[in-house]
TrEMBL record:
Classification via InterPro entries: NA-bd_OB-fold, Ribos_protein_bS1-like, Ribosomal_bS1, Ribosomal_protein_S1-like, S1_domain
A Pfam family per the record: S1
Family, per entry: Belongs to the bacterial ribosomal protein bS1 family.
Taxonomic source organism: Rhodobacter lacus
Described purpose of this protein according to its UniProt entry: Binds mRNA; thus facilitating recognition of the initiation point. It is needed to translate mRNA with a short Shine-Dalgarno (SD) purine-rich sequence.
Presence of keyword Ribonucleoprotein: yes
Repeat among keywords: yes
Protein name: 30S ribosomal protein S1
Coiled coil segments of this chain: none
Keywords attached to this entry: Repeat, Ribonucleoprotein, Ribosomal protein, RNA-binding
Encoding gene (name): rpsA
Length: 559
């Protein structure tokens, strides 16, 4: 009876053990620490199974393991039994599974997760998120590039999950997103306390070519280089240095972009308010050249007030020359105020106006008719340019080169560099033009030769050459040519060979051209005029007298 009861109890216990499921491999189970030895914790996971776990798996990065006998922990069951008959378990894998479940929920709800940076890898860092390892790209560490990440290592701090893939075991996190969010909240709070026109203190954080960024206590404002001072500032480092505390005025706040524009010059009086009183039009002042461009030079009259000397107002004589060849940066010059536009904050200045007009000086020193001497600077198709005093030129037109030669022929006698003498014939100060004449220095042989000779006059010329087409004659040194058709009234007498060199012949003047310097004479015109005069005086051929009778009477009357 007793044996029978014992067998029934054994069968019941055996049946009970069959009904209890052995935990599946690859699942997380609960266990109890029953001993700690040789750097390992021995854990009873039930089901008459025990396993060992290294103590380091119970420690967070940078911390000592916190585990004691009797503690209940969750572990990952890798295998039910190994070669030694022990269960293969892992606290780290359990934490990872637990962490993935937690992180997936946080990722879905866009919540922050806590973690600690514990290693450096190519392109960034590794982060422990309480059992799961994530990748932190270098660009997501901070809002600005971080050169030394040492102070951040092992420090528990919040991160934002950007991407995760459980199947591949990939998690990408960002610390920068947390900082930007916090920064945006702080920025919004600071901006909310600022107003345009407010004067605040700030610290210069960064300097660029176009300005400086000033920290206003959690939010940066841009102090543009044009708002640093009323005067021209070439680079912000001339005025500011990093770390310097400055007093600035809030010029503008963009509520949408949270951008703040700052100004320093607004805290000073505007020098343009008194420009018209200090620099009246026509007044001359000393200034300093601050900038040179292709179209002129900027001259500072006082701090904050600059004027432009246009290239056309720089020199009386140097045309089409780059301003840099006339003035240099930082040079002190005398300038005249030509125009002021306070609305546009512009002052037009003149450099040449502070010097006397060289054409006026020349006109005073060399009146019309006076003689000058100069070097041939240039030869053109219409005349010579002669270099004069004060870098000005005078021009000798082709028609003023010689009395006897055509201009095209006369100009061949001159070369660049020749020193010539000429007479001043005209000075036009407004047009900046000086007219000269070389031939005016010599007597006009043509005018002297034909002095008193008019059209219709009868003069005596001497024959100097006999040609087929006529004869060449001379009168007071002036040559003239009588064509065959003008040698006589009658065609039969229009023969050049009936004249000889040295003969003296009376001719009638038909033309006196001072421009071409030609004297036109004709024997035929003289004979016709004499015939007409004889007819009028001694009778008419219509009355029955022959032309021979009339001419005979005229000749007899002259005797």
């Amino acid at each position: 009876m007793c044996a029978k009861a014992t067998m029934e109890e054994f069968e019941a216990l055996l049946q009970e053990s069959f009904e209890i499921d052995t935990p599946n491999e690859g699942s997380v189970v609960k266990g109890k620490v029953i001993a700690i030895e040789a750097g390992q914790a021995i854990i009873d996971v039930g089901y008459k199974m025990e396993g060992r776990v290294d103590l380091k798996e119970f420690a967070n990065p940078g911390e000592a393991p916190s585990i004691a006998v009797g503690d209940e922990v969750e572990v990952y069951l890798d295998r039910v039994e190994n070669a030694r008959g022990e269960a293969v378990i892992s606290r780290e894998k359990a934490r990872r599974e637990e962490a993935w479940d937690r992180l997936e929920k946080a990722y879905a709800s866009e919540e922050r997760v806590d973690g600690a940076i514990f290693g450096r890898v190519k392109g960034g860092f590794t982060v422990d998120l309480g059992g799961a390892v994530a990748f932190l790209p270098g660009s997501q560490v901070d809002v600005r590039p971080v050169r030394d990440a040492g102070p951040l290592m092992g420090l528990k701090q919040p991160f934002q999950i950007l991407k995760m893939d459980r199947r591949r075991g990939n998690i990408v996190v960002s610390r920068r997103a947390i900082l930007e969010e916090s920064r945006a909240e702080q920025r919004a709070e600071v901006i909310g306390n600022l107003s345009e026109g407010q004067i605040v203190d700030g610290v210069v954080k960064n300097i660029t070519e176009y300005g400086a960024f000033v920290d206003l206590g959690g939010v940066d404002g841009l102090l543009h280089v044009t708002d640093m001072a009323w005067r021209r500032v070439n680079h912000p480092s001339e005025i500011l240095s990093i770390g310097e505390t400055v007093k600035v005025q809030v010029v503008k706040i963009n509520k949408d972009t949270h951008r703040i524009s700052l100004g320093m010059k607004q805290l000073q009086s505007d020098p343009w308010d008194s420009v018209e009183q200090k620099f009246p039009i026509g007044s001359v002042h000393k200034g300093r050249v601050t900038n040179i461009t292709d179209y002129g030079a900027f001259v500072e009259l006082e701090a904050g007030v600059e004027g432009l000397v246009h290239v056309s107002e720089m020199s009386w004589t140097k045309k089409n020359v780059h301003p840099g060849k006339i003035v240099s940066t930082s040079q002190e010059v005398d300038v005249m105020v030509l125009e002021i536009d306070t609305a546009k904050r512009r002052v037009s200045l003149g450099l040449k106006q502070c010097l006397r007009n060289p054409w006026e000086s020349f006109a005073d020193a060399h009146p019309v008719g006076s003689m000058i001497e100069g070097e041939v600077k240039n030869i053109t198709e219409f005349g010579l340019f002669i270099g004069l005093d004060n870098d000005i030129d005078g021009m000798v037109h082709l028609s003023d080169l010689s009395w006897d030669k055509r201009g095209e022929e006369a100009i061949q006698d001159y070369r660049k560099g020749d020193v010539v003498k000429a007479a001043v014939t005209e000075v036009d100060i407004d047009k900046e033009r000086i007219s000269l004449s070389i031939k005016a220095l010599d007597a006009d042989t043509f005018s002297d030769a034909v002095d008193g000779v008019k059209r219709g006059s009868v003069i005596t010329v001497s024959v100097t050459a006999i040609e087929d087409g006529g004869i060449e004659v001379e009168y007071n040194g002036m040559k003239s040519f009588i064509r065959r058709s003008d040698l006589a009234r009658d065609r039969a007498d229009q023969r050049p060979e009936r004249f000889q060199v040295g003969d003296h012949v009376d001719v009638r003047v038909v033309n006196v051209d001072s421009k071409t310097r030609k004297l036109g004479v004709s024997i035929k015109a003289r004979e016709i005029a004499e015939e007409k005069e004889a007819v009028e005086q001694y009778g008419s051929s219509d009355s029955g007298a022959s032309l021979g009778d009339i001419l005979g009477a005229a000749l007899k009357g002259r005797e």
